[in-house]
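can u do me a favor
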C-alpha cells in the first residue's frame, strides 16, 4: 500500500518533511513484493474453478487457501504441473497450505472443486505466491555489514509483511465467524417459529379438549307404549 507523506504539528511547531533518503526507502518498501495472487471467489454447487500461473523452473511457490462460507466449509483442491502430474491433492479440506519448487518451466494449474455438494455454494479465498521477495537494497547480500539505517529499514519491512499476513488471516477468521453466527441465528429463528406454532396448536387443542369435558350431553329417551 503506498504511504502518504504527512507533516506532524507539535508544541514546537511544524516539523520538516522526511529526508529524500527516507522517502526513497518507503517507496522501496511499498514497491518490493513477490508476485502473488490473492482472490476471494464464489464456488457454486456442483462446480469446479481452475486457475493458471506461468512459473519458471526453480521458483519457490506457496499455495494457501481457506473456505470462508458455505456448507461444512470444505472444498477439494488439486495442483498440477505442466505435464499434468499431480503435485497436491486434498479432498474436503477447510484450509491448508502447500509449498513447492517448480521442476520445469510452464503453466501450472490449480483447481477448487465443489462437485460433491448438491445444494450449498462456497466462498473460497486463496493466496498463490510465486517466488520470494527481492532484497530491499541492491547491496543487501553484500559481504560488508549494512548501515544502521538499512538494518532498521529491513527490520521494518519484515515486520510490515508479518502484520499484513496476520491482518489477512484475522479478516478471514472474522468473515468465517460472521457467517457461522448468521447461520446459527437463522436456525434459531426458524426453530423459535416452529416452537411457537407447535405451542399454539397444542394450546388450542387443550382448550377444545377441556371444553368437551364440561359440555352438556343431551340424552334422548324413547317411551314404549303399551
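np, heres the sequence
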Amino acid at each position: 500500500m503506498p504511504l502518504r507523506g504527512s507533516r506532524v504539528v507539535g508544541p514546537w511547531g511544524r516539523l520538516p518533511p522526511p529526508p529524500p533518503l527516507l522517502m526513497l526507502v518507503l517507496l522501496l518498501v511499498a514497491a518490493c513484493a513477490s508476485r502473488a495472487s490473492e482472490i476471494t471467489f464464489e464456488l457454486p454447487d456442483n462446480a469446479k474453478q481452475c486457475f493458471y500461473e506461468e512459473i519458471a523452473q526453480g521458483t519457490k511457490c506457496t499455495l494457501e487457501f481457506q473456505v470462508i462460507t458455505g456448507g461444512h466449509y470444505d472444498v477439494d483442491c488439486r495442483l498440477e504441473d505442466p505435464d499434468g502430474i499431480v503435485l497436491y491433492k486434498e479432498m474436503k479440506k477447510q484450509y491448508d497450505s502447500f509449498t513447492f519448487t517448480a521442476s520445469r518451466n510452464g503453466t501450472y494449474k490449480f483447481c477448487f472443486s465443489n462437485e460433491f455438494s448438491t445444494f450449498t455454494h462456497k466462498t473460497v479465498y486463496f493466496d498463490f505466491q510465486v517466488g520470494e521477495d527481492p532484497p530491499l537494497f541492491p547491496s543487501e547480500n553484500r559481504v560488508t555489514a549494512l548501515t544502521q539505517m538499512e538494518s532498521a529499514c529491513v527490520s521494518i519491512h519484515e515486520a510490515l509483511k508479518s502484520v499484513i499476513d496476520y491482518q489477512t488471516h484475522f479478516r478471514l477468521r472474522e468473515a468465517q465467524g460472521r457467517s457461522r453466527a448468521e447461520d446459527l441465528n437463522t436456525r434459531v429463528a426458524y426453530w423459535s417459529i416452529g416452537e411457537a406454532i407447535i405451542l399454539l396448536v397444542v394450546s388450542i387443542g387443550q382448550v377444545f379438549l377441556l371444553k368437551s369435558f364440561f359440555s352438556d350431553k343431551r340424552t334422548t329417551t324413547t317411551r314404549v307404549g303399551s
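Residues 1-33 have pLDDT under 50 and may be disordered. hope that helps!!
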